[in-house]
């Protein structure tokens, strides 16, 4: 291997449960060789989150090409395809598409005069008050925050398979405040975070934290996602920990969704197998779940019950000691393995705090692989 890229695991304080994340140095993202790409690919599947510092110069095209490398057969459709165009989709207001590189989206906060062919546009950092059933009081809003929504970047309906990787480039980052992220779920859990962090947790750690009985359960089960899930959930409200929705009957009724068919419904394994390490990640988009298909053929269709099961399985994995809250610096290019981690927007910016990020992911050519037959899976 002749690549000059050096990959070093991130280090965390004593007591941390975070066992993922790495920094890669010596990379020329605009001119990656095949050897470089092999190193980056291996780093992603080994460490799940890979940080490249000082990459503010990287073009949208180079970002797209790096993202596309992880699944060359995946074509060039943005991970959510055109579903973000649906007026009622919850994803619609958060994204601006770069005209000359439509797989790359601009996200952030504040008013921007001009950027990559976009002019005079408003970015809005998602705030939990638009999505959670309860909110942090206004007078505490600058100091306290919540996980907005734990998720995987995936369409979860139709032919588009969950992206393998998402790349995020921090072009502009407002300086230095910190906030306390509260779970507000009666546990007292909270986490000190940099303003506007992206929070990551490992699906592998989430799986490993389960009892043997639950491991067997999740290995055999599949999740049926709602049709047009981002429209379906648009009127529902989240739990205070951002990990799934409350069951208040607020979802858009199925017969009021855009046209859909049962063949387009996605039913995916709960555990996704890492193509390099073979580890199993518990990968569930908790807000989009609708029905649970058990190993014995039973289908749990009661939405409240499905959500309770999913929350019970996932909640230990988002405990503060498992959360990596990336401290964004201008020029950070972060690649994350979308099939091995869950992530969440965090934070509340003031109106005049301008932040500009570029995000790219591409719908994959293949759906994630589930567990191997039980005999060959280590518990
Ligand atoms: Fe995301």
UniProtKB/TrEMBL annotation:
This is TauD/TfdA-like domain-containing protein. Belongs to the TfdA dioxygenase family. Residues 20-358 form the TauD/TfdA-like domain. The keyword GTP-binding does not apply. SUPFAM superfamilies: Clavaminate synthase-like. Gene3D superfamilies: Clavaminate synthase-like. Keywords: Dioxygenase, Iron, Metal-binding, Oxidoreductase. Transmembrane segments: none annotated. Its cofactor is Fe(2+). GO terms for molecular function: dioxygenase activity; metal ion binding.
């Amino acid at each position: 291997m002749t690549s000059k890229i050096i990959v070093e695991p991130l280090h965390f304080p004593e007591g941390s449960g975070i066992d993922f994340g790495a920094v890669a140095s010596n990379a020329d993202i605009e001119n990656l060789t095949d050897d470089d790409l092999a190193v980056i690919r291996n780093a992603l599947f080994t460490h799940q989150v890979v940080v490249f510092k000082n990459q503010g110069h990287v073009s949208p095209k180079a970002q797209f090409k790096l993202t596309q490398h992880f699944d060359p057969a995946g074509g060039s459709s943005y991970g959510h395809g055109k579903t973000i165009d649906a007026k009622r989709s919850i994803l619609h207001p958060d994204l601006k598409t770069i005209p000359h590189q439509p797989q790359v989206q601009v996200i952030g906060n504040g008013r921007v005069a001009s950027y990559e062919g976009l002019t005079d546009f408003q970015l809005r950092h998602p705030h939990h008050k638009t999505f959670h059933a309860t909110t942090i009081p206004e007078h505490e809003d600058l100091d306290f925050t919540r996980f907005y929504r734990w998720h995987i970047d995936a369409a979860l309906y139709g032919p588009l398979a969950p992206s393998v990787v998402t790349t995020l480039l921090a072009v502009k980052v407002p300086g230095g405040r910190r906030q306390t992220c509260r779970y507000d779920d009666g546990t007292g859990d909270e986490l000190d975070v940099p303003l506007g962090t992206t929070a990551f947790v490992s699906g592998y750690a989430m799986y490993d934290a389960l009892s043997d009985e639950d491991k067997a359960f999740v290995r055999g089960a599949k999740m049926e996602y709602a049709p047009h899930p981002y429209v379906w959930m648009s009127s529902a409200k989240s739990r205070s920990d951002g990990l799934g929705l409350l069951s208040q009957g607020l979802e858009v009724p199925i017969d009021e969704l855009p046209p859909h068919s049962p063949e387009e419904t996605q039913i995916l394994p709960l555990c996704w197998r890492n193509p390099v390490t073979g580890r199993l990640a518990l990968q569930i988009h908790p807000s989009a779940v609708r029905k649970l298909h058990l190993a014995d053929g039973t289908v749990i269709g009661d939405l409240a019950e499905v959500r309770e099961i999913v929350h019970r399985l996932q909640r230990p994995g988002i405990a503060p000691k498992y959360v990596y809250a990336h401290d964004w610096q201008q020029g950070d290019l972060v690649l994350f393995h979308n099939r091995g981690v869950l992530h969440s927007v965090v934070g509340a910016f003031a109106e005049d705090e301008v932040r500009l990020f570029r995000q790219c992911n591409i719908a994959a050519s293949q759906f994630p692989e589930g567990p191997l037959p039980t005999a060959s899976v280590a518990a």
